[in-house]
């Protein structure tokens, strides 16, 4: 696979959209303390921009997930220390593709961590690839059914550092 020539979203478009998402979050939570629960590693650039644009009481939790090879299951590899019980939690995800990872995490957090509320902010949404219906309360952009990279998203751990979104295609 190689990097495509085109750009789906520029750095400027990304910053503008993340700003809009942050304003919406501020409006909806109206000063209620919020825990951003980001999924490693892909959500790191989105998290860093998003959290700095949200004015208010924001805390941070990090979770590393693994989507298993059979494509049907997900598991949790790492959770940072922060008590989520009774907290208003907003999951920060890079992309929702099949929905399997997010579905697993939502069910896990509801069952094990008893948050006061649980919502989802996904920077990208690939609706054509969805296998499980999952809620997305704040969405950055919809993307076509391509393998997108950049702004945290990788192809075999590469391209996470690109400041824009592009895709990979066969050589
Ligand atoms: P899911 O299929 O919705 O469970 O997505 C699982 C994870 O796969 C996402 O959190 C991403 O880390 C990764 N992923 C899915 N689609 C893409 C893509 O187009 N580019 C890069 N990573 C992706």
Defining traits:
single chain, 171 residues, alpha/beta, 6-stranded mixed beta sheet, binds inosinic acid
Low-confidence stretches: none
Order of helices and strands: EHEHEEEHEEEE
Query: What's the number of extended β-strand segments?
Result: 9
- Give the CA-CA distance, first to last residue: 5 Å
Shape: globular
The largest sheet is: 6 strands, mixed
- Report strand order across the widest sheet: 4-3-2-5-6-7
Q: How much helicity do the residues have?
A: 25-40%
Would you tell me the structural class of the helices and strands? alpha/beta
Mean pLDDT: 95
- Beta-sheet strand percentage? 25-35%
Q: Which ions and ligands are bound to the chains? A: inosinic acid
- Radius of gyration from the CA trace? 16 Å
Q: What does this protein look like?
A:
- The chain has 171 residues and is α/β, with parallel strands linked by helices.
- It has 3 helices and 9 strands, in the order βαβαβββαββββ.
- The strands form 2 sheets. A 6-stranded mixed β-sheet has the order 4-3-2-5-6-7, sandwiched between helices. Strands 1-9-8 form a 3-stranded antiparallel β-sheet, with no helix packed on it.
- The mean pLDDT is 95.
- The structure holds inosinic acid (IMP).
- The site of inosinic acid (IMP) has 17 residues, from strand 5, helix 3 and strand 8.
């Amino acid at each position: 696979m190689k990097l495509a020539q085109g750009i789906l979203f520029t750095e400027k478009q990304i910053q503008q959209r993340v700003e809009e998402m942050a304003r919406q979050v501020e409006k909806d939570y109206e000063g209620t303390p919020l825990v951003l629960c980001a999924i490693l590693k892909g959500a790191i650039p989105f998290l860093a921009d998003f959290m700095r644009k949200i004015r208010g009481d924001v805390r941070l939790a990090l979770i590393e997930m693994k989507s298993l090879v059979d494509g049907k299951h997900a598991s949790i590899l790492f959770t940072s220390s922060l008590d989520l019980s009774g907290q208003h939690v907003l999951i920060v995800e890079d992309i929702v593709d099949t929905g399997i990872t997010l579905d697993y995490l939502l069910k896990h957090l509801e069952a094990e961590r008893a948050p006061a509320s649980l919502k989802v902010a996904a920077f990208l949404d690939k609706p054509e690839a969805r296998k499980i219906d999952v809620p997305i309360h704040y969405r950055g952009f919809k993307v076509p059914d391509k393998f997108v990279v950049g702004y945290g998203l990788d192809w075999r751990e590469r391209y996470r550092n690109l400041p824009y979104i592009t895709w990979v295609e066969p050589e």
